[in-house]
Design brief:
- With about 270 residues, the protein is α/β, with parallel strands linked by helices.
- The chain has two domains: about 140 residues, Periplasmic binding protein-like II (D-Maltodextrin-Binding Protein, domain 2, 3-Layer(aba) Sandwich); about 110 residues, D-Maltodextrin-Binding Protein, domain 2 (3-Layer(aba) Sandwich).
- It has a six-stranded mixed beta sheet with strand order 2-1-3-10-4-11, sandwiched between helices.
- Helix 1 links the parallel strand 1 and strand 2.
- The longest helix is centred in the N-terminal third of the chain and has 15 residues.
- It starts with a strand and ends in a 12-residue tail after the last helix.
């Protein structure tokens, strides 16, 4: 039995479930989708070898591989169907505010209340730290910073008026806009950071290389089959592109530049 999981936003679980079921049929092996734990527990189970393949944040992947020395193999990354992705395995971080807020661009957010999903996230946290570092802004850009716990929770804080803005994974935002009628009338995007390499589906160390190769082939050929296209049509994904460790070197460079950068003021500062 091959066990898969996703460490992405929960609104992607239905798409993952459908694709994983298709993969099992394609490679002729029984599969299961570990979806009944919080993403942190899913990640822990993957690290411990209880899960064979996980869809991970790119920053999480490079940190686990480089800092912990885990033997991980990136297999593929989704290519989104929306034209903004230009048939590439990339995504964006959309800077979202309330529709009636006065903010017009990133510069106008200086001194605002900022929400982020969680500190291991590239799209919601590290990409913003990198952007601030590239501007020479190392601390105190935002007046107050709130750790929301998820992209959806960050959006909820904006809608309630408890936060002014957040960086939302573009694929998560697009799904939420489709799921929540009226959300598009309540929020707007003032700017976009990226593109960034799309989060990879990663095989654990120790997984049979033959199984890894069979999975990579099935993933990348999915859109070439009638039943595969039918599944993908329900997910927002166009196809899967093969990826290698070097494809995530840009994230390594971004993390190095962002090192030491804070979104808000240091504790105890005025």
């Amino acid at each position: 039995m091959l066990t898969f999981t996703s460490c992405q936003a929960p609104n992607a679980d239905p798409a993952c479930r459908s694709v994983i079921a298709w993969l099992g049929r394609a490679i002729g092996q029984p599969v299961t989708f570990d979806e009944f734990h919080p993403w942190q527990e899913r990640a822990r189970r993957f690290d411990e070898g209880a899960v064979d393949v996980a869809w991970q944040c790119g920053a999480w992947y490079v940190t686990r591989k480089d800092t912990l020395g885990l033997a991980l193999t990136p297999l593929v990354a989704p290519v989104m169907a929306h034209p903004r992705y230009r048939n590439r395995p990339v995504y964006f971080s959309d800077i979202v505010v309330r529709r009636d807020a006065p903010f017009t661009d990133f510069a106008s957010l200086r001194g605002a209340v900022w929400a982020f999903n969680e500190p291991d996230s590239h799209s919601g946290y590290h990409v913003v730290r990198h952007y601030l570092a590239s501007l020479g802004e190392r601390a105190g850009y935002f007046d107050r910073v709130i750790e929301a716990g998820s992209h959806q929770a960050a959006l909820a804080l904006i809608l309630k008026g408890s936060a002014d803005a957040a960086a939302i994974d573009s694929t998560v935002l697009e799904t939420e806009l489709a799921l929540q009628p009226g959300l598009g009338d309540a929020v707007r995007i003032v700017t976009t950071l990226g593109p960034s390499p799309m989060p990879p589906w990663v095989a654990r160390g120790g997984l049979d290389p033959g199984v890894s190769q069979a999975l990579r082939q099935a993933f990348t050929e999915m859109h070439l089959t009638g039943d595969g296209r039918a599944v993908l049509a329900l997910t927002g994904w166009e196809s899967f592109a093969p990826v290698a460790d070097a494809d995530y070197d840009p994230l390594r460079s971004m993390l190095r530049l962002a090192e030491g950068t804070r979104l808000g003021r240091a504790p105890g500062s005025a």
